[in-house]
Structures are given as structure tokens and as C-alpha cells.
Design a protein that fits this description.
Its EC number is 2.1.1.228. By secondary structure, the chain is α/β, with parallel strands linked by helices. It is built from ten helices and nine strands.
Length: 248
């Protein structure tokens, strides 16, 4: 899959693409990331990419002309009609289901906005989808682009050390959409705190029940909305409901 990232700050991606376990996806081109600076397509000696908003007001607005020229260059290089994604507070929030869909796709063109926003005419004509990371505002879309790329990369075959690792992620349907359980490792006792004996028992059924109970407990405490969703989907067992009743 290929992601073309339109950004005024391509240098922000340099350390991201060569660090951590997900670098395997980028180095092998399982997730092919290409960076495009709209300033390279701007007109005039100053390569201007922004201007004051019509009607007045604070800040600057990214101009549609260099963005459209940049997109045209990407289209000329790509053989497919990849969707254009703009990261914006106006879009729906990215979630696990969305990440899974992108991880099985051919990729997209990711537009990272800056300043007060982008000329609406570019959005109206070229943008297929807007996505948000949450109900807050960032300085630009680069962090959101990195979040999407990282989430997609770790789902690719062979990227994680243990191929089954992502099956136990929070929000995964394999865990019925619940949060993940707590994790422990050596030493068995640290600063007076012992690892749960169930995890040291070697009894796989007991271990799995402990993990399931802790997932339910953490989710009920931190994200009760996920419990409601799992219940509505019929994903909770009688044992699950019995534990939740005790926690209530």
C-alpha cells in the first residue's frame, strides 16, 4: 500500500519512519510512504502557500492553488484513484475499525493542514474524506498522519515481533471491543508488589479467565461505553455479566 503525505514539514517524518518496530513496514515498503511539500508547487519567488482570510480575522489560510498542483503531481505518479484524506476537527474520529480498513486498503493521499485551515474550495473539489484524532485542535495534521501510519503499519504481516500481538490490542473485535488487560513481567515481586498468582500458575484456563475479568474491570471503570456496546452486540457471557454485577 502507498500513502502520499502532503505536508509543509516533511522533516518531521524523517525520524518517525526509521524508528521503532514499525520501521520494518516502511523500509520494506509494505507501507510505502512518500512525502510531498506543496511549497515545491507554489508560484512566485517566495513560493507562498498561505494568505490572509477573506473577510478578515486572525491567522492565515493555506492556498488551494499549490495544494491542487501538488495533488496533480501525485496523481500523475500513482496508477490508482487513491482517496484524498484531510485531517480536520470536522471529520469523524479515527477508530480501530477505521485503522483495520486502511490496513487492508491500497492507501491514500494524506493532506496535513496548517494555520487556520485550508481554502474550502480545495476541500470541496478534491477531498474525499476528513478524519479527526479527537475533539481537540493540533497545530497541524502531521501528528494525525503519523498516528494513522503507525496504526496501519503495525497490522502488516511480519512487522511486529509476535504476529499475534495486535490480536490482543484494546478495541480489537477479538477481545469483543474491550480494553486490554494489565501486563506484568520479571521480577515477580517489585517494591513490595507481587505479580498476580494466576499469571504464574501455568494454568491456561485460569490465566485466560483472569485476563478476561481484568479486561472487563478496566473497561467498566475507564470506558463504560465499550461495555454497553459489547452488551448490545451480544458479546458478553453470563460469567462476564456476573462479574460486572459485582463491580457495580
Amino acid at each position: 500500500m502507498r500513502f502520499d503525505v502532503v505536508t509543509l514539514f516533511p522533516e518531521l517524518f524523517a525520524p518517525f519512519l526509521v524508528s521503532g518496530v514499525t520501521r520494518r513496514a516502511y523500509e520494506s515498503r509494505l507501507v510505502d510512504v512518500r512525502l510531498w511539500n506543496p511549497r515545491d508547487f507554489a508560484e512566485g519567488n517566495y513560493k507562498r502557500v498561505d494568505d490572509r482570510p477573506f473577510g478578515g480575522g486572525p491567522g492565515m489560510v493555506m492556498m488551494g492553488v499549490p495544494l491542487a498542483a501538488c495533488l496533480a503531481a501525485i496523481r500523475a505518479e500513482r496508477a490508482d484513484a487513491a482517496p484524498v484524506v484531510l485531517f480536520s476537527p470536522a471529520g469523524p474520529r479515527l477508530d480501530h475499525a477505521g485503522v483495520e480498513a486502511w490496513s487492508a486498503s491500497e492507501g491514500a493521499v494524506l493532506v496535513c493542514g496548517r494555520y487556520e485551515g485550508i481554502d474550502q474550495r480545495f476541500i470541496d473539489r478534491y477531498v474525499d474524506l476528513q478524519l479527526s484524532l479527537g475533539d481537540f485542535v493540533l497545530s497541524g495534521g502531521e501528528i494525525v498522519a503519523m498516528a494513522l501510519l503507525d496504526a496501519v503499519a503495525r497490522l502488516q504481516p511480519g512487522v511486529l515481533g509476535d504476529q499475534d500481538s495486535h490480536q490482543f490490542d484494546s478495541f480489537n473485535p477479538a477481545l469483543d471491543g474491550l480494553l486490554d488487560c494489565p501486563h506484568y513481567t520479571r521480577p515477580e515481586e517489585w517494591e513490595g508488589m507481587k505479580a498476580p498468582p494466576e499469571l504464574l500458575s501455568g494454568h491456561h484456563v485460569q490465566i485466560e479467565r483472569w485476563r478476561r475479568d481484568r479486561r472487563l474491570e478496566v473497561t467498566a471503570r475507564q470506558r463504560p461505553d465499550l461495555i454497553a456496546a459489547a452488551r448490545a452486540a451480544g458479546r458478553l457471557t453470563k460469567a462476564d455479566e456476573a462479574l460486572l454485577a459485582k463491580l457495580a
